[in-house]
Amino acid sequence: MTGLPQTELLPAHPVARANDVDEAHEAVTRTYLPHRLEVLDRGTDLDMRLNAVRMGAVTAGYLRYGSAVRLGTVDAGGYHVNIPVTGRCEQRCGASEPVFAGPGRAAVFMPGHPADLRWGAGCAQLCLMIERHELELELERQLGRPLGERPRFTTTMDLDTPAARSWLEVLALLEREADRPGGITHHPAAAAHLQSLVIAGLLLAQPSNYSDHLHAPAAPAPPRALRRAVELIEDEPGLPWTSSTLAREVSISVRALQEGFQRWFGLPPMAYLRDVRLTRVHDELAVADPDGTTIAGVAARWGFLHAGRFSTAYRRKFGGLPSETLHGRHPAKGR
């Protein structure tokens, strides 16, 4: 199981449909990186399909070949994860053992190493590419210190671990929202947060030379750092804060920030931010002109882009609907 739909992904973002080898090669090179493409079965149509979306430092693409092919690269500039959606693919990063990717198993590739992929006929994969610089920055934020060496992941990814399943849920969200008109990937603040979730999720889910450090207890956050984090949230709740950017601003690790908020406020920093934003929405609606104000517009200004989830959170906090606040029909609760 991959946790992803067993159908064509990202259909709203087509890049290429090709039976011509040169056309297929050019499309994948343009989207990902230079490579060699060899068709192993000339008796079957190539029937290559590529859909892809780029979100900051993350490129996610659905790549399928109808015939058996072999792909090779000299090296890669970023980190890559190939997650089979249908079929199987034998994949190797550098001199490591081959990964026989299929249901429940993905392949991970490091920058600076060649790759060799033997793609089975009809195999489709979600191919993820993450810029090296951004992944290493995210790792530094998680650790709260500069890196001593480049991150090295194990090349086989077990998709059935709890951490991997959680990460796949993030990728499924990315895939759904990228295809949804007006989805969160189209809004810079939400897209930045989702990019951080994708990268941090990989760092936490996949074993690497930093796993022991990532899972070790974090040093307690200094109270002054937590106070400053709260000030930043209260003063500028409309900024596209993530746990990573907030931790960087107060010069502590992401884990120290998260554990500090949980210890002192009883909730994670992003939940604290959501609570502040809900209060700002409530305050704005309470004094707004009902004839010239839309709830969706006010909510979007404060970073709430999913109407259903926003309404549920709002009602849980204030005991009524946003429309009731706008029309002055219920008192403030839970402020």
Automatic annotation (TrEMBL):
It holds the Pfam family HTH_18. Keywords: DNA-binding, Transcription, Transcription regulation. Residues 227-328 form the HTH araC/xylS-type domain. GO terms for molecular function: DNA-binding transcription factor activity; sequence-specific DNA binding. It comes from the Bacteria. This is HTH araC/xylS-type domain-containing protein. It comes from Amycolatopsis camponoti. The lineage of its organism: Bacteria, Bacillati, Actinomycetota, Actinomycetes, Pseudonocardiales.
